[in-house]
Design brief:
seven-stranded mixed β-sheet; binds adenosine-5'-monophosphate-propyl ester
Length: 633
């Protein structure tokens, strides 16, 4: 069976086969890759434990599949097209042959520093080609990479390094974001001061060449690469060996390390990339995500390179030097597939359609969104001014835990409907259940979104805490993976993902736990207690609203709270609104009633309903009045 679907009939056929004979289907798909040894068992699974094993018996290395496999006929083709922050600077094309050599050299350098199979390496870098090189170098030697988004603070970085017990950090000196130069190495230095006792070596890539402080454990990227061997035999990996850890927020205060394994992730990354983006030879594919998130892992690095595509990496921001930058890049490089987040679309929309109208976007064949629900207005703007009613929109629903796109329409194959991610990819079995766990079979109903059969790129465990993985995803509904999302199915079976039903919020497509933000706020010395809720935000999708009780009254408390959050998590988690209050609504057992605060933050105080069961019902009116007063100011 071919990897790529091209027609509605192909989709029907592949979907039907993937349900009637999932093992046969995925076994066939594995034939499109290079294996050192083929698998003997396609799937063994048990959602109760959970234990999920794909392609047992197989041996492989994913970097060989991303690079070596293409050297015969694509060695001169551009693998990575790097577009720098500054529009005046030239872009850089890295061919498959060159990328292969750079990955092998970096892999040799890691080996020279004693890194081997199973060791954890944390990557804390901006969007530079060296980040992709480092990811693939880890994969080549079987080291488990854990990319930490370079906007996270020293404390957040240290927490992730400690949890993974990483023996190395690879970083850059600085990052460039629009007109700003942001220190990166200095954050690593601070993290190393805080803890990071497991780290023996820090490799520093000089991106801007700016001044940095230096320690005994630091090594210069350029010097290591000069000394290292240009060749590096790929380490043979078992199918279920972990490939990477990626930390993501959950409903508790501590981010969890989602672990993905090698063979299943590889097959699904390539399968979903090929089909969702309908990539053809010669196309220039661009995903604007950061490699610090799962989208960057699967759809900037692994998926495109596995498919032998040309993948673009952009260093900068959408609005520098102006709000036409994305479209100028699309025109200049004749981008064929463009994949971004609804928050970016909304942010650019407010600058007006005269920006995209200045550019020739005729090369675009597919435009995609990911990370959060897309509102109807943004969908139509994207369709009209970017896709120009010609390039179909794929609204792709998936998660860090799913490893790859799960629900989406397929361009030119299945239809597209505003705000609906639409149909499951072959092999994916979404179901809606009621809070009691009953299956909702009728259409035009809402429910909790679960997946009731394994797929190859699904989460295997949460690093160092398997029980947490079981409890979070597999215990709510027996025999099902619970996504944490609520969804609706329309009359024709299309799925629309409405949003999280747990204490996870989605700010500009970044996933944050309310408990995580509360913990950070509570670190501020004047804070006694806090409660964080989300409210609808025109650009970010959701904004962060914090209600905080303090032991003193000072005018600058709110800015201190913001500074503390930035220090402990990073700028992404900065509250948009802070209300210093004297008490928080609580149940008789002492639990904060966030439902009430959510209503207040959303301007729906009228719908709060009965508060008489609260321990302190009088505080509700006080908070409402205070919010109204402050919002008027
Ligand atoms: O709530 C869903 C939302 O983003 C969550 C996953 O976040 P994260 O693990 O950071 O991964 C984001 C990139 C894959 C989901 O639980 N989400 C993601 N895509 C969509 C979405 N909500 C609605 N529509 C989408 N297309």
């Amino acid at each position: 069976m071919p990897l790529r679907m091209r027609t509605p009939a192909d989709y029907q056929e592949q979907y039907a086969r993937s349900i009637s004979d999932p093992e046969g289907f995925w076994s066939d798909m594995a034939l499109h890759f290079f294996w050192r040894k083929p698998h003997h068992t396609t799937l063994e699974w048990n959602f109760e434990k959970p234990s999920i094993k794909w392609y047992q018996g197989a041996q492989l290395n994913i970097s060989e599949n991303c690079l070596d496999r293409h050297l015969k006929d694509k060695s001169d083709q551009t693998a990575i097209l790097w577009v720098p922050n500054d529009p005046g600077e030239d872009s850089v094309s890295i061919s498959y042959a060159e990328l292969h050599q750079r990955v092998c050299t970096c892999a040799s350098a890691l080996i020279d520093l004693g890194i081997g199979k199973g060791d954890r390496v944390v990557l804390y870098m901006p969007m530079v080609p060296e980040l992709a090189v480092a990811v693939l170098a880890c994969a080549r030697i079987g080291a488990i990479h854990s990319v930490v988004f370079a906007g996270f603070s020293a404390q957040a970085l240290a927490d992730r390094v400690d949890d993974a017990q990483a023996s190395m950090i690879i970083c850059s000196d600085y990052s460039r974001r629009g007109a700003k130069i942001i220190p990166i190495k200095a954050v690593v230095d601070d993290a190393m001061e805080l803890s990071c006792d497991s780290v023996q070596h820090v490799i520093v890539h000089a991106h801007t060449g700016g001044d940095i402080s230096w320690h005994d454990h630091d090594h210069r990227w350029s010097e290591l690469m000069q000394r290292a061997s240009r060749t590096c035999e790929a380490t043979v990996m078992e199918s279920e060996d972990p490939l990477f850890i990626l930390y993501t927020s959950g409903s508790t205060g501590k981010p969890k390390g989602v672990v993905h394994s090698t063979a299943g992730y590889m097959v699904y990354a390539a399968y979903s990339f090929t089909n969702v983006f309908q990539y053809d030879p010669g196309d220039i594919y661009w995903c604007t995500a950061d490699i610090g998130w799962i989208t960057g892992h699967t759809y900037i690095i692994y998926g495109p390179l596995l498919a032998g595509a040309t993948t673009m990496m952009y260093e900068g921001v959408p609005t520098y030097p102006d709000a036409g930058r994305f479209w100028q890049i699309c025109e200049q490089h004749r981008v064929s597939q463009f994949y971004t987040a609804p928050t970016a679309i909304r942010a650019l929309m407010v600058h007006g359609h005269h920006f995209p109208e200045q550019y020739d976007l005729s090369a675009l064949k597919v435009i995609g969104t990911v990370g959060e629900p897309i509102n109807e207005e943004a969908w139509h703007w994207y369709n009209q001014y970017i896709g120009r009613h010609r390039a179909p929109i794929v609204d792709t629903w998936w998660q860090t835990e799913t490893g790859g796109i799960m629900i989406t329409s397929l361009p030119g194959i299945t239809d597209t409907k505003p705000t609906y991610a639409a149909y499951p990819l072959p092999g994916i079995r979404p179901v809606l259940v009621s809070p009691e766990g009953d299956l909702i079979e009728e259409n035009e109903k809402e429910g909790l979104l679960c997946i009731d059969y394994p797929w190859p790129s699904m989460i295997r465990t949460t690093y160092g805490d398997h029980e947490r993985c079981r409890q979070t995803y597999f215990s709510a509904f027996s025999g099902k993976y619970f996504t944490g999302d609520g969804a609706r199915r329309d009359a024709d079976g299309r799925i629309r993902v409405i949003g999280r039903v747990d204490d996870v919020i989605n700010v500009s497509g970044h996933r944050l736990g309310t408990a995580e933000i509360e913990n950070a706020i509570n670190e501020q010395s004047s804070v006694i207690e806090s409660a964080v809720v989300a409210y609808p935000h025109d650009i970010k999708g959701q904004g962060i609203c914090a209600f905080v009780i303090c032991d003193i009254d000072r005018p600058d408390l709110s800015s201190d709270v913001c500074l503390t959050v930035r220090k402990i998590i990073g700028p992404v988690a900065t509250p948009d609104r802070i209300y210093i209050v004297s008490s928080l609504p609580k149940t008789r057992s002492g639990k904060i009633m966030r439902r009430i605060l959510r209503k207040i933050a959303c301007g729906e105080s009228d719908g709060i309903g009965d508060t008489s069961t609260l321990l302190n019902p009088e505080c509700v009116d006080l908070i409402i009045r205070q919010v109204e007063k402050e919002d008027m100011q």
